[in-house]
Amino acid sequence: MSQIQSLHQQAMDLAEAAAVARLRGALEEATQFTRQAFEQETQAAERLIATALSGNPPVEIAEELKDLFIQINLSQYLKRQGIDIDINELREFVNH
What we know:
The chain contains four helices and no strands. The longest helix has 28 residues, at 27-54. By secondary structure, the chain is mostly helical.
């Protein structure tokens, strides 16, 4: 659990640095810090999801965790492929 806590703490530190940069008017720097914080928090979330799934969660919870895992990894995969898509926009498109 300490690796997860470390990733989360790093994300919080980066988020704070982003806020300070925004206050100084350094918007590009703030954006970079925000992205880095998001990546750290995503890594922590992936590890938490894997830990939760390695136990024996109820079926409904397991399905939600699997959905979260796919959402996190699909977004990262698409970004690496140069595809920028908002998962919420995609969800709206599919549901209509």
